[in-house]
Structures are given as C-alpha cells and as structure tokens.
C-alpha cells in the first residue's frame, strides 16, 4: 500500500474515533491535527479541500465502496441496506459529519449515492424509455430519496434505521413497478 494511502487511512481512522465519541459542536483543523499528530502541510497535501475533503474521502472508503459493489452486482436493495446499516452502526459519527459538512458538498455526496442506485434500478428499462426520460426519472426519484435521508438526519436519527430502510426499499420497488 502506498505511503499516501496509509496516511489518508490514518487520518480517516482518527476522524472516525473523534466523531464517534459524542455529539460535537465543531471540529477545527487544529483540533484534528493535534489528535492525529499530523502537520498542517501533510493534511492539506492529502486533502486540499480541508475537512470537507477528509469527510468525503472517509465516507467513500467506509460506506460508498460497499454500496457501489452491491449496486454494480445488481443488488440495489443491498446497496441501500449497506448505507442504512453504516449510519446505524456509527450514528454519532454520521450526525457529526452531517452537521459539520458544507451543505453543497453534503448534497453532492447524497446525489452520488442516489444516482448510483437509480442508474442501476433504471438500467433494465432503457429499451422502453429515452435517455432524457430516464434522466428525468433519475433526477426526480433521487431527490425523493435524498429527502428521506435528509429528514432522517434532521430528526437526529431518532426514527429507527429499520423503518427508514423498509420505506426506502418499498419506494424503490414501487418505482420499479411503475416503470414496467
């Protein structure tokens, strides 16, 4: 494994440890660097976008990789389960990231997840719809899925993850039914 990858993994591990302990008001770069025992130069070398870059990279490594694997294997429902399970395993970490993340970057992250799900769900209907129609379905239903995830976070994850998982998967199955 490359040295740079090891450093990124070290920083992601420290981030998860720091944000998993308790709900925090903020996490500054200085606080993070002290805990991670990493220089500011090294941090920004690996994450030029600062903490938001570290947040995204950590999520990419920890959850989106598993989600994408499941979806690429044709198991979109399993991909959704992976995301919900991750949030349920690390609620404080996820809530802290949600609060600390720049809203536009957070939306971009959610969109990357939901787009992957909907591309998989809609791919089998390609012969029946134009590219433009499929893109419209993708945008519309991705927004609905993002709204579900967002509402769960806005409610401090008080609703059970199982209920969110059931609702999301039910709605995705309904979309498939409508598409037929």
Automatic annotation (TrEMBL):
InterPro entries, sorted: Homeodomain-like_sf, TetR_C_Firmicutes
Signal peptide from the UniProt entry: none
By what name is this protein known?
Answer: Transcriptional regulator TetR C-terminal Firmicutes type domain-containing protein
The Transcriptional regulator TetR C-terminal Firmicutes type domain is annotated at 75-162
Give the source's domain of life in one word. Answer: Bacteria
Species of the source:
Latilactobacillus sakei subsp. sakei (strain 23K)
Lineage summary: Bacteria, Bacillati, Bacillota, Bacilli, Lactobacillales
Q: Which Pfam families match?
A: TetR_C_8
